Amino acid sequence: MINEIRSIPVIVSDLEEAISWYQEKLGFEVRERDGHWVTVAPEGWTSEIHLCKMDELEPGNTGILLLADNLEDTCKELKDKGVEFTQEPSKKAGGTIAKFKDLSGNVLWLMSKNEYKE
């Protein structure tokens, strides 16, 4: 089952200024920096803020990444409960991702915990 909220997106107009602000004002550390993928968090936290340089997320896309111990089992369990998937598990550069939507159409991302690179 889902056992962790891994990252939550925050839209920023200037990525470099945002990184500096989170570091200098809040004392956050940069966890990962890979092209447009930049995450920041307080030291010791497992959840992160994903800084997204864009005007807005695509309609319905929350960008919220959830982790599960076993992606296949969790997808099956959610489907058995009537959860609608917008994307079946699919291998991407960062790992295997599935996407599903909540009752209001908000799309959540799901990844296997062992595939998420720290």
What does this structure look like?
The structure is a single chain. By secondary structure, this protein is an alpha+beta fold. It has a single domain (2-112), classed as 2,3-Dihydroxybiphenyl 1,2-Dioxygenase, domain 1 (Roll), CATH 3.10.180. Helix content is 17%, strand content 49%. The protein contains 2 helices and 8 strands, in the order βαββββαβββ. It has helices spanning 15-24, 71-80; strands at 2-12, 29-34, 37-41, 48-53, 61-68, 84-92, 95-101, 107-112. It has an 8-stranded mixed sheet, covered by helices on one side. The two termini are 20 Å apart. The mean pLDDT is 89.
Task: Give the percentage of residues in beta strands.
Answer: over 45%
Q: What does the radius of gyration come to?
A: 15 Å
State mean pLDDT (0 to 100 scale): 89
Helices, by number, come to: 2
CATH class: Alpha Beta
Main beta-sheet strand count, sense and barrel state: 8 strands, mixed
CATH architecture: Roll
Q: Which quaternary structure do these chains form?
A: single chain
Measured as a percent range, the helix fraction is 10-25%
CATH superfamily: 2,3-Dihydroxybiphenyl 1,2-Dioxygenase, domain 1
Please report the total strand number as a whole number. Answer: 8
Topology-level CATH name: 2,3-Dihydroxybiphenyl 1,2-Dioxygenase, domain 1
If strands are numbered along the chain, what order do they take across the biggest sheet? 2-3-4-1-5-8-7-6
Low-confidence runs of at least 5 consecutive residues? none
